Amino acid sequence: MNKTYSSSNFYGKVFKLALPIAAQSTIVIGVNMLDTMMVGKLGDDPLAATSLANSFISVFQIFCMGLGMGASVLVSRYWGMKQSSPDRSQADEASVALKQTISLMLRLTVILAFLFAAATYLAPGIIMRSYTEEEPIINLGIKYFNYSIPTYFFLGISLTSTIVLRSVGQVIYPLIVSIGAFFVNFSMNYILIFGKFGAPRMEIAGAALGTLIARIFEVVLIAGYLFLYDKKIYFRIKDIFMSTKSLIREYIRICIPVLISDGILAIGTNSVAMVIGHLGGVFAAANAITSVTQQLSTVVISGVSQAGAIVTGITLGEGRRDKTMQQGYQFFKLGLILGTLSAAFLFLFSNTIIGFYDNASAETAATAKQLMNAISLIIIFQGTNSIMTKGVLRGGGDTKMLMLADNIFLWVLAIPLGMAAGFCFKMSAFWIYILLKSDQIAKTVWAYLRLRSGKWIKKISTRS
Fold it and tell me: What percent of the chain has pLDDT over 70?
């Protein structure tokens, strides 16, 4: 009875956090899918250009996820300390450390946004040529970039602020904001891409501008809530400028490896996109169709991953190591189940999803089908190791080891094998994708062994 109750309580806590996060991710991905489908109506070249331009923007997004999730490791741990500490002075100390973490995160986010905006403004052609050699796609991508430059600032602040709110259990409000952003993005894209209601027909530029408007809407509501109305963290605008000297060493030890890990991983993922882009417009367009669908099929996994980091951090903040180990095994089993369900979804509905892109060429549709089959296999492993590496192990503070594991498996195994498959052996799309994602299989085995060792649970302090 105690075991049953414990498991029931565990799954209740996880899904109370995970489902709103998953719902929010579904909305965000749904917007991306609508963008892809709308731009797809313009033909294969605009579809490929939008996909490849967004690959670079996604690098920034992954960096911001690294910043946010790195801060989340500390935020959730300090939140657990603050909530459970009977000593008022210790609770106050945890509260100050929590605010210092957010302040450092936001400062780094703005610096990062400035660097990406500058690169996009100064060298859009160079960026696009790193993905493809086809001039029509390059020119369309440059046009998309011209309207995307301010997006980095709004995207970065709203994304990292959302992760902070989630880390203290506030998952409903960001979901509501995303629902609003969905309708703003859809409406603006429809009006601006196709020139409806008297607006000029902007085509691919309209997709970029519509997304920018939605990001502005999002940051006003998310950052406005965090800075002005939130009563849990009680972080205010003036706190951005607070002294953070006492926390810098701990922040660097725990958060910076997450940023480096996700950053190098983003570059690696971007390299995968470059490989795909240089395999031709057909392969790039097919990947654009499948990538959004893959994201949609893993939204619950992504939600559970973030919930895993939060639950693990809070439990360790309460000083309950044995319970944390038990939860780790439960998360691993949950990853296998959810990965298998995602694979089944993709396999069963791949033809229907590809059929939505009725303007895609027959060759693009056939390539997309091969990619869907490959994703259906890889996603079982990707789902499991994502919950462990981006959730449980990260929440335990094992960020340095994760930084090494993520990038060794990607750069030493997956990218060399994928490039050899595509450029040397001219293998089919199915096998190219399998080998480009072979790191997901290796990381699943490694994550289980790391979980068993117990070495992933690290001590975190409120001061340097």
Answer: 93
- Whether the CB-CB separation of 17 and 172 falls below 8 Å is answered with no
Encode pLDDT of 22-71 as tens digits: 888 778 766 766 777 788 888 888 888 888 888 888 889 888 988 888 88
Which amino acid, one-letter code, is at 276?
I
Backbone Cα Rg of the chain: 22
4 has pLDDT over 70: no
Q: Provide the pLDDT confidence category of residue 463 given band limits of 50, 70 and 90.
A: low
C-alpha 395/C-alpha 19 separation (Å) is 19
Task: Name the residue among 221, 195, 193, 219 with its Cα closest to residue 208.
Answer: 193
Mean pLDDT, range 301-311, rounded to an integer: 88
Q: Give the model confidence (pLDDT) of 63-101 as tens digits.
A: 898 888 888 888 988 888 887 767 777 778 888 889 999
- The single-letter code of the amino acid at 145 is F
Sign (positive/negative) of CA torsion 379, 380, 381, 383? Answer: positive
Q: For the whole model, what pTM was predicted?
A: 0.77
Compute φ and ψ for 103, nearest 5 degrees.
-60, -45
The H or E element spanning position 334 is helix 321-355
Taking the C-alpha atoms of residue 159 and residue 67, their distance in angstroms, rounded to an integer, is 10
Is it the case that residue 278 has pLDDT exceeding 80?
A: no
SS3 248: helix
What is the Cα–Cα distance from 172 to 16, expressed in whole angstroms?
A: 10
Report whether 395 contacts 327 (CB < 8 A).
no
- Give the residue from 14, 386, 26 showing the smallest Cα distance to 175: 26
CA-based torsion, 19, 25, 31, 32: positive or negative: negative
Q: What distance in Å separates the CA atoms of residue 149 and residue 415, rounded to the nearest whole number?
A: 29
Question: In this structure, are residues 17 and 112 in contact, taking their beta carbons and an 8 Å threshold?
Answer: no
Looking at residue 130, the DSSP 8-state letter turns out to be T
Q: Quick one: which of 397, 359, 388, 391 has its CA closest to 450?
A: 388
Classify 80 as helix, strand or coil.
Answer: helix
The 10s digit of each residue's pLDDT in 401-425 is 988 898 889 889 988 998 898 888 8
Residues 6 or more apart whose Cβ sits within 8 Å of residue 14: 304, 307, 308, 311, 331, 334
Residue 257: enclosing H or E segment and its boundaries?
A: helix 248-278
User: What is the mean predicted confidence (pLDDT) over 443-455?
Assistant: 94
Residue 362 has pLDDT above 80, yes or no: yes
What's the CA dihedral at 163, 166, 167, 170 to 10 degrees?
A: 150
Contact 128, 137 (CB under 8 A): yes
- Rounded to 10°, the helix 135-146/44-84 angle is 40
Distance of alpha carbon 322 from alpha carbon 204, whole angstroms: 53
